[in-house]
Design a protein that fits this description.
Elements: H1 7-14, E1 27-29, H2 35-41, H3 45-56, E2 57-59, H4 66-79, H5 85-88, H6 92-95, E3 99-102, H7 109-112, E4 118-121, E5 138-144, H8 153-162, E6 164-173, E7 176-177, E8 183-184, E9 207-210, H9 213-219, E10 224-231, E11 235-241
The chain binds zinc ion.
Length: 253
């Protein structure tokens, strides 16, 4: 589909800040949405355009697409690391970090797996709504475009919060349509991500996130929610923060 893109549009799609994973500054693009999904989702042409960038514009150096780069950007902001993800994993701070990855977070998985404290589980074999870990086991939880496939997104986030230590954070991406509010797809025709014709039940969409995506984070018990752009609105990531200190039973800090 690359050949159908007008040159000026292609330039817009491939003119991005340097890749936060590898530092590369060359990008390529191919559309990933198909007409049936665009209709089910009710996307305007402008919304389809930026979702296509989110999923289909990739760094030629490391292969990361915009959503993966946005997640890397969020992790680096959270750790206050002025470097690429590939550099960060070699730092002492990173190597002290216990990180849970739920589903391969796009192309970040190979880099994150270099960390001694990295643990990867896959949804739905590992149910995000009932994680098999003790409370306060991790410093970071990451997932990328998985939460929209979890039947109860709030419950999934609540589990992420439960397994985080004080001061930890859940960093994640979901496709966000910024000009509307979140809607559940209960009662609507089944919509499946992945690729055209895909029938993988684990890719069934339960929630289409909108501008109120932050509400789910706070409803799940997190203490703070930041939405950070690698590129607005195509490349957004969320930082769901657990406070450093937690209230005692008496409600005192
Ligand atoms: Zn890259």
């Amino acid at each position: 589909m690359v050949s159908t893109i007008k040159k000026e549009t292609m330039n817009e799609r491939t003119t991005l800040s340097p890749c936060r994973v590898c530092g590369g500054d060359a990008f390529t693009h191919h559309d990933v949405l198909w007409s049936e999904l665009i209709a089910q989702w009710g996307l305007s042409s402008g919304e389809a355009e930026y979702i296509n960038v989110q999923q289909g514009t990739s760094c030629t150096g490391c292969g990361s697409n915009v959503r993966s780069i946005a997640l890397a950007d969020a992790l680096l902001r959270w750790t206050r690391a002025a470097m690429t993800l590939k550099e960060w994993v070699d730092t002492a701070a990173a190597r002290r970090c216990d990180i849970l990855e739920i589903n391969e977070a796009g192309t970040l998985s190979g880099t994150l797996s270099l960390l001694p404290g990295h643990r990867l589980v896959r949804y739905p074999e590992c149910d995000m709504m009932t994680l098999p870990f003790e409370a306060r086991s991790f410093d970071v939880v990451v997932h990328s475009d998985t939460l929209e496939h979890v039947p109860d997104a709030t419950r999934g986030l609540r589990e992420c919060r439960r397994v985080l230590r004080p001061g930890g954070a859940c960093l994640f991406t979901v496709p966000v349509v910024v000009g509307r509010l979140t809607r559940g797809r209960q009662g609507l025709p089944v919509s499946v991500h992945g690729s055209e014709g895909c029938t993988d039940a684990s890719l069934t969409v339960h929630t289409e996130f909108g501008a109120d995506v932050w509400c789910r984070v706070l409803e799940s018990g997190f203490d703070e929610c930041r939405i950070v752009p690698y590129r607005y609105p195509a490349g957004l990531a969320l930082i769901a923060q657990v406070a450093e200190s937690i209230p005692t039973e008496g409600g005192q800090w």
